[in-house]
Specification:
Elements: H1 5-13, H2 21-28, H3 31-48, H4 55-79, H5 81-84, H6 102-124, H7 126-146, H8 153-162, H9 164-173, H10 178-201, H11 203-209, H12 223-240, H13 250-273, H14 276-299
């Protein structure tokens, strides 16, 4: 924030030659997390499309969402740079490792946010742009500061993370139908066990960073594990609801129950064992669950298509 140009140049010059300059900026967007946003946006667009798919608009919708999501991730790291330096899992990120100056990270993040918003607004649909900005604003101005104050930050973050499917739906249909809200509910519920598993594995790191994640708060006992099981159970009927709002058919319905049961089994194992290994299994199961579920929706041959 107060870096001099000379210090910025020295910091940027310190990057090893094996890691090119563009990689610093790519890392700032958290590509892994952003890719999840893109997948859900694209699948929602395909599910909302009626008739031939407008592939150019799909590309523009995904690109615009990626730019806004990447900007949010960059601004989050700019905000938390000092805390990221305390945590093993984050200290090698571009800003805490000083491979990229905070000023350049801030300028880059704001710039791609503006570009993404303009792309969605001009080339896609104003509703899509508004929803993407809502996700960005909740992530930066509500979720990020709440991480230091309350364990409810995970719920707030899940709201932000569940909005990209609405962006994709609005880009294709220009409105939000019942199917869009089912996708929102699926993604919202899925995120709770997903992120609690991460928080459990890295709970010591979160203590060092000063973040109030549920698994690191003293006195909560088995509460995080009970919450995991409850949300895994809740995901079963919510995911099944997609078959009753014309998003999919009976093949998807059966498949969603199978996938949900596997995820629930991983959640129950974490409840029983309370070990990092069980948390990692749940995390991996959740990573596999979401794309498999969306693929079932899109490819289900029994889906009613209009």
């Amino acid at each position: 924030m107060t870096d001099s140009p000379e210090r910025t140049m020295r910091s940027d010059a310190a990057l090893p030659a094996a890691r090119p300059a563009w990689l610093r900026y790519a890392e700032l967007t958290k590509p892994g997390l952003t890719s999840l946003v893109l997948v859900t946006t694209a699948f929602a667009y395909l599910l909302a499309s009626r008739g031939p798919v407008d592939w150019l608009r799909l590309f523009e919708a995904v690109l615009g969402t990626a730019l806004i999501g990447g900007g949010a991730n960059g601004l989050n790291q700019w905000w938390e740079v000092e805390r990221d330096r305390r945590m093993k899992r984050t200290r090698d990120r571009p800003l805490p490792s000083r491979r990229l100056s905070p000023r350049r990270g801030l300028v880059f993040s704001v710039t791609i946010t503006i570009l993404g918003t303009g792309l969605l607004l001009v080339r896609v649909h104003p509703l899509a742009a508004g929803l993407a900005l809502a996700s960005w604003g909740i992530y930066i101005f509500v979720y990020t500061p709440l991480k230091l104050r309350t364990t409810l930050n995970t719920v707030v973050g899940a709201v932000s993370g569940a909005l990209p499917p609405l962006v994709g739906w609005a880009a294709a249909a220009g409105r939000l139908d019942a199917g869009a809200w089912v996708l929102f509910a699926i993604l919202f519920i899925w995120q709770i066990p997903h992120f609690l598993a991460i928080a459990w594995v890295h709970r010591e790191d979160y203590v060092e960073g000063g973040f109030r994640m549920l698994p690191v708060v003293e006195g909560v006992g088995r509460a995080p594990f009970r919450i995991v099981v409850v949300y895994c159970l809740g995901l079963l009927p919510v995911a099944a609801a997609a078959a009753f709002v014309d998003l999919a058919g009976w093949v998807y319905l059966v498949g969603s129950v199978v996938l949900g049961s596997v995820l629930l089994g991983a959640g129950l194992r974490l409840y029983r064992d309370q070990t990092p290994e069980a948390a990692r299994r749940l995390f991996l199961a959740s990573i596999a669950y979401l794309p498999a579920l969306f693929l079932l929706m899109v490819l289900d041959p029994t889906r009613l298509r209009t």
